[in-house]
Amino acid sequence: MTALEQPGILTPSQAREVFRTGEVPATTSGWCRGHVQANLLAVPRDLAFDALLFALRNPGPCPLLEVTDPGDPHVREIATADLRTDLPAYRVYERGRLVAEVADATEYWRDDLVALLIGCSFTFETALATAGVPLRHVEQGRNVPMYVTSRRCRPAGRLAGPLVVSMRPVPAGLVATATEVTAGHPLAHGAPVHAGDPAELGIASLDRPDFGEAVEFADGDVPMFWACGVTPQAVVMASEVPFVITHSPGRMLITDRSDENLAQ
Amino acid sequence: MTALEQPGILTPSQAREVFRTGEVPATTSGWCRGHVQANLLAVPRDLAFDALLFALRNPGPCPLLEVTDPGDPHVREIATADLRTDLPAYRVYERGRLVAEVADATEYWRDDLVALLIGCSFTFETALATAGVPLRHVEQGRNVPMYVTSRRCRPAGRLAGPLVVSMRPVPAGLVATATEVTAGHPLAHGAPVHAGDPAELGIASLDRPDFGEAVEFADGDVPMFWACGVTPQAVVMASEVPFVITHSPGRMLITDRSDENLAQ
């Protein structure tokens, strides 16, 4: 078995090297266990204040891990990485529409972009597994399902739109455990926003996620929903923002930070 | 004894009314005990991204409590207050120089200003007092002394400059207690940055604070230093920023939030 067949044991720099050379996995969930993963939102300089303000006003979906200087495509704190190449895949939005999904963002990158790196719920999955909570999407080899909800984020400037959540089926007897474990990771979205009836969040059907893939429930599983770092992508679409680059949902920047350093 | 002679028992809205009608106390330390106080930094829209990024990169001196929409002189979350009138006093800086200190900022306010409200160490003074830590500046009826240090903040865009600290003399046997108590208030600057020799922070003499007033030490007191929300004012001066309005050091916005809600 090669290291790539066991992505959980790769180091973050090995994983980024794999992505830099063009490998595009279905998801980075389960990769480099014990390390923080991050969502990407890169916006033109003239939208950067609105984006920062939006993140500050919506710390549930948008906990900020690092923000780059305008024009600098590198992160330097959470990892030493080139944001144009070191994620598995990217989405490019123009006027709110998805215009490209690519493994390398170099040709789309602009020298006025500011990148926001936002916490990801994959970060707390190691802690969930350690606490005995099964991860159905990992068991099934799928990307986590994500849903646009009927909840509105707090707007900021030109940015307004819905909350997006990730969903994990959790055995009913472990809902309290999963809540407690994830509450300890506020920079990875923290405690769930809801457990139970998806209709409460305006989700019509769990079988048709807006991002990622549907997962199978085991008998007795309850759907649990966490605020998701794909929220800015739904907001970008709703707000018809002229131009942004994001990660491809479920395919994150893997950072050098250990989970423990972000837990509280 | 009137309520004004016992400012600790005023409600925050009563205190703001007092300030709105022109009263300017030496300090708001000790006012409205149990309520969060906040520093003000109001910057033109074109500096707002740099200011937000500076705060995010320097959460010790600049924990963000609320950020207003451009042009809106009101806070709506931490209090319902008019930032132009509801603080005791203001400073106006042009090209890094202090050009006015006024009790009412209305005539200086601009419609492109964005206001950052930043946590204040006065917030944790109730907790210190409850833990038996004496507050020398309160006992002596003085504004807390603040010092520009030799430590540099992390820069952001056009903003770069030194860390400012507030200093409180603490009996040696209570230094550990004071550290522990304040560490629980990260949105009020949290644990001290230093205790002991002021020279470690590049402070030549405790008798000559850069802001506020010198305080007397009791026998056995050790100087303890906390990151201070006046830091942006020192940074504004060092960076020669064209225009900002701040609170007058030690004369804060008193919010409606209780201390407990900000403690962690």
TrEMBL record, chains A, B:
One Pfam family linked to the record: D-Glu_cyclase
Organism: Actinoallomurus oryzae
Keyword Lyase in annotation: yes
SUPFAM superfamilies with a match to the protein in the record: PSTPO5379-like
Enzyme class (EC, first level): lyase
Lineage top rank: taxon: Bacteria
Similarity remark: Belongs to the D-glutamate cyclase family.
Keywords tagged on the record: Lyase
Protein name per its UniProtKB record: Putative hydro-lyase GCM10023191_058000
EC number, UniProt record: 4.2.1.-
